[in-house]
Structure formats: structure tokens, C-alpha cells
Fold each of these.
Amino acid sequence: MRKMIIAGNWKMNKTPSQTRAFIEEMKPLLAGADAEVVFCVPAIDIIPAVEAAAGSNIVIGAENMYFEEKGAFTGEIAPDMLVDAGVKYVIIGHSERREYFAETNETVNKKVLKAFEHGLTPIVCCGETLTQREQGITLDWIRQQIKIAFLGVTAEQAASAVIAYEPIWAIGTGKVATTEQAQEVCGAIRALICELYGTETAEAIRIQYGGSVAPKNAAELFAQPDIDGGLVGGASLKTDFEQVVKFK
Ligand code: PGA
């Protein structure tokens, strides 16, 4: 049985002191949740988040990392830095990173491999634009993103990974994918993992849906057979997140 994983993606929100206060506020609300709960936070908020979450069921993740070990890469964060700070998960290849920071399937693959090398679990993002959906090439596009992201990844590593399917047109728009659309793509991703690695890996890997997940739609989305939780932007910044985590 796969354990559901519900991860907040704070994006560029909350200062370190706001982080401490919010995690303190959320701790009692999220205690005892059935799902695994992760907050992926801006780099500067990682240490206050880890400190505030200590002793609770809240796990802290990062929103990005670089694929080199160390050196002259001004402004970047190395995998070791995340590990040392207490990070467990790292979002890789979010569509905003692809769009605004020139990330490609190839850099995503390098980051995924590097994350595994350091014992971090990547939350590998994929998703189509509205044009791609309208052109009927969603599944081809997603297959390409995932195939390249997982080049060189072993079956054992893949089994522990998280994939987040986030249709770009549904991110931050309030326009959530229908449960059928979300399930169709998440099912196709699991079928691809089966094709690449076999049934056991496909049954183990966790696949999230992301894009305008909110208290009102979480239960229906997360009840789909191939959806193992969500990557949640806007709704993870408020105490409402409790209702997303406790969706049942
Ligand atoms: P949203 O963002 O929930 O605000 O749509 C999701 C994401 O980008 O991860």
C-alpha cells in the first residue's frame, strides 16, 4: 500500500519568522494525519522550518537544488547543504523553474540523479500547457518529460521517488483538472514506470496531482486509483491546508 503524500509548495512566500509562526500554528492541526505531510519551502526558510517542525509529523522539503556538489555557482544551493539542514524531499523541475529559470528535461535529469546520490527524495514535476492539451499531445509530452527525468535512475530509486503531475493551465488559476483528466495522466505515468521498471516499481512510486488543489476538490482527486496525494501551492500557505491533508 502506498502512503499518501501531501506536499505544500510555498514558492516565493513567507519570511523566516513567518515560517516559524506558521509551522507552529500548523503542528497541532496536522498531528495524527494519515498522509505524509511535507512543506517545501524557500531555501532561507529551511532551517527555521526544520527547527519549528522538530518532534512533529511535518517533514521539510526544498523547492530546488543545483546538480553540482559545490563551487563557483553563485546563488545556488548544493544537495549536501539541504541534507545537512534536515531536508528530506526536493522539488525538481517545477514548471515555474522550467519557464522562468530555463530548466530543461536534461537539467531535471541531472538534478534527479544528484538528489538520489545524496539520499534526497525528488518530487519530479511534469505537466502540459493548455496548447499541448488542446493539440492532443499531453500524454506524449508527459512521457518524454518523465523518460528523460528518469534516465540512469535505478528501479530501487524510482520506487522511492515522487512524481507530481501538474497541468500548467491549472496552476494558480483556480481551474482544477477534472478528476478524469488527472487520473488519466497519473495512470499513464504509472503505466510508463511499469514499462521502464516493471510492476513492482510502478506499484511503489507515488504520483501526486498538483494545480489548484483546495479543500473543496482534494477528496475527489485523491480518491483516484493512481493519485497518491497532491503538490499544493496557494492552499498550503493558509491553515486551510489542514483540510487538504485530512481530505477524507
Ligand atoms: P497551486 O500551485 O496549488 O497554487 O495551483 C501548485 C503548484 O504549482 O505546485
Amino acid sequence: MTGERPTAETVSSILGDRELVVASNRQPYSHEYEDEEIVVNRPAGGLTSALDPVVQSAGGTWVAWASGDADGEVTDDDGRVGVPPENPAYDLRRVSLSDEQVDGYYYGYSNQVLWPICHIDPSKMNARADFWQHYRDANRKFADAIADEANGESVVWLQDYHLALVPRMVRETRPDVFCMQFWHITWPSRDAFQTCPQYRQLLDGLLANDLIGFHTDQYCQNFLDCAAMLPDARVDRATRSVVYDGRRTFVRSFPLGIDATQRRQLAISSADNEFWHEFKDEHDLGDTLALGIERLDYTKGIPERLAALEHLWETRPEWQGELTYVQKASESRSQIPEYQALQDFVESEIQRLNERFGTDNWTPVVYLNEYLPKDGLATLYREADLGIVSPRRDGMNLVAKEFVASQVDDPGVLLLSELTGAAEELGDEAILVHPHDTPGFADAIESALSLPEPERSRRMNDLERLVHSNDVYAWMNAQFRTVKAIQRGRDVAAKSVKRQ
Ligand code: F6P
């Protein structure tokens, strides 16, 4: 069974007359200069591309940061532009931020305070006072734009950790909107979250939502534990909700999925293509291929994975000349010193491993950091014998799901870190690893590669079923259904108060 893409009818049967306003840091379309021409780019990120068709069919407005250098050239005086450009279906309302604000709000507070704390790595936190100031200012700009676009009854759907203060700010001018937020990363334990100096203000902001969604039940429990730190909050574990400042906020898990059908079709159409032939000619591959695909982020555990591979080649030399690991990496947040240092370290480690073990006709690690076309990526997913997804911490991890959906014949094996949200869903049929247990990780690579075919197929069939039934459309539908249930509950309560 596959989640049905919500149609305009489904969304409007749930929203009624209420208008949808989506807000996220990243925008679904950006306008950029290329050779003095303005071109439209669509960020590769799965979330914006999955939400875009839904907003297209439901109509409404999407509020996002104007990150493109030509964005301002195409918007009206209020920062609005109709998208998709070729056939506009909804308004994109762009929020302009100065370079200083982007440094403080995005590179600073979002990615050097909230990101490390939520990924339970508080020693990487850089709690500069000006970061917080910029985060507040940028959230205010988003909130003003949302309040401008919303009417009293709108459903405001906020995405992610960049916008934690927005719900409270929106309520100042639009007290009656239905406000919901999905937190796309881990929500940590109370002890870890408390290391953030502004933990109270963040909770105060988030508890102005009517509904907050997380990937797993554990993150919901962690959030409820954190909410209990606010003296004026009453946490109701039975209904998984928090009563605070005269409002009840429901806390629910909605595991994010991918467009699995589209991913499978892409894998089918990428069989035996030119990319694959060129790739094989260009690199000295072994007969067995392992694959890792990620942004260059310290949470993804790339150095730990390379250490496990080194241990394998060192202690079991029969894998030398046989197993090639392909690392596809994309540069990310490079203005942050931690990310720059990681990029340099990964490159030097790969070079060291290739010098240590490589031969004239075998490359142990192939490093790809250039742009790859969609069908190239799909081919790598499809051809890999082993997909290695081993973050030190990850809220969900969609690469694991993309690998599964791409196994169209001769299925590979998924090796998955137990410290990911995806392990809750896929952990029974994937081979679980702990990213910091180097010898155990190396053993797991070997056992995964030694699984007999019937066992590989059985595991992959089960994984495919899960990935297809919990896809991105099931994720959206579950949230819209929850909105409807909350509204129904409130209508009933309001009627009974009237009758008394
Ligand atoms: O996982 C959280 C997330 O914000 C995703 O939504 C996004 O794809 C990824 O991190 C990269 O984020 P960005 O490049 O916008 O910092």
C-alpha cells in the first residue's frame, strides 16, 4: 500500500474554508543569476519538493527565506511571486534577510546552537549572544510575513528548527490561526536540551502551536519531559499534550517518508545507463560496492565509517581488492568552521586510506563531491551491494529509505545506525550498527556482505513494504487528519460549554 498524494479535495475537506500558509527556511524555488540571466532553481532537498505539489493543489502561500541572488528581481513590492514560474498555482512570499542576519540566524543560532544541541553534541554549541538576537529578529520577520499572508482562520504549517519562536509571534496578531509545526531533527533528552541557554524561550515559542510533530514517539516523550521544566506548563501524558498559557498543544509522532514510488521508477529507468558505464571505466572498482550518500555534516558519522572500513581492510585483507566504498558527499554550511574542518578531514582520510591500501587496479574509496545528475545517483543506489547509513545521530534519515526504494533487482543490504529515527521503523530488517564501535561496525559490514540471497531478498521485501506504506504522502495525510481530529474535539467542547 502506498500513501495517497493529498489532492486539493482531500486538503480542502480537512481545511474547510481555512487557507494554508506553509513556512520554512528553505524555499521551493529560488531565482539566481547565471551568466547575467535569471534562472529558476529548485533545491534538491526532499522536503520542499514533496510539499510543493501539495501546496500547488491546495493553493495558499509559502513563506521562506529569499536565498537566491535574483529573488528580489522577480517579486512584487510585498516580496510575493507566483510559482511554479511556468504555471503559477500559489504565492511564494519571500523574507529578505541581510547577510549579517543570515550569518547570525542561519549559520549561527540555527546551526551552531540548535543543531548541535538537538543532535546531543552540546560541546559543539557556540552560544554567542548576537546569534540569539539575530534568530529572534529573523523569526520576527517570518512571523510578520506569515501574519500578513494569513487570515484569522488560516492553518499555518511551520517546518523545522529555524522557526521555533514564530508560533508565539504569529499569535500576537493572529490569535485564532491553527498553528502546527513539524520538527525535522531529533528532539533530545531534557538534560541535553537544558544546555541551551534559551531553552525556556524556545519552549515558550513552540507551545503557542496547536500541534507539534516529531519523527518518533521517543522525541515526543523527550519534548514532554522538556515542557515539564516550565513552571506554568501542565503536561498531560495520557493525551500527549501540554497546557500552557491558556492553550493545549498536542504532541504527536509522524515519521517522515519519501516519494517511494517516484524513487523506484527512477531506479528502474536508470538501469545500465551511460553514467554507470562511464563510472565503471573511470574508477578501479572492486566486485563489491558499498555506498554512502550525505551532506558533509559531522552528525552523519563519515570519519567513524571510514575507521570501520579501515579496520575491515586491515584485519580481513581478503576484502582488499574486493570491496570499494563510494562516498558521495555534498558540501554543506561551509561557512561554519566545524563543517570546513570536517570536509578537510574527510578528504585527507580518504587519501590516506587510498595510499595505504590502494593498488594499480583497485581504489578502496571513491570520493564524489561534485554535482551528480538524478539518474547518476539512482544508478549508484541501485548498483550498490551495501548502503551504509551510519550517523552519530539523525532525526530520521531519508537516504536509508531512498536506498531501499531503489533496490529493484538483486537487492543490496541496508546497514543502519541505531542512533537514527529510521532505525525505529527499519531496524528489524536492516543490519544495525553503532557508529562508534569500530570493530563491531567492521564485523557488521562483513556479515551484511555475506548474507545469502534469499535472506537479502526477504529483508529487502519487508523494508520496501515499510518504505512504500509510510511514504511522504502518508506523513502529510496523518498530519492533516490529526488537525481535523483536534478541530472536531474543540468544536464539540465549545458546543457543550455553550449548552451549559
Ligand atoms: O534535516 C534537517 C534539515 O533542515 C533538512 O530539512 C534539510 O534537508 C537539511 O537539514 C539541510 O539543511 P540546510 O542545507 O537547509 O541547512
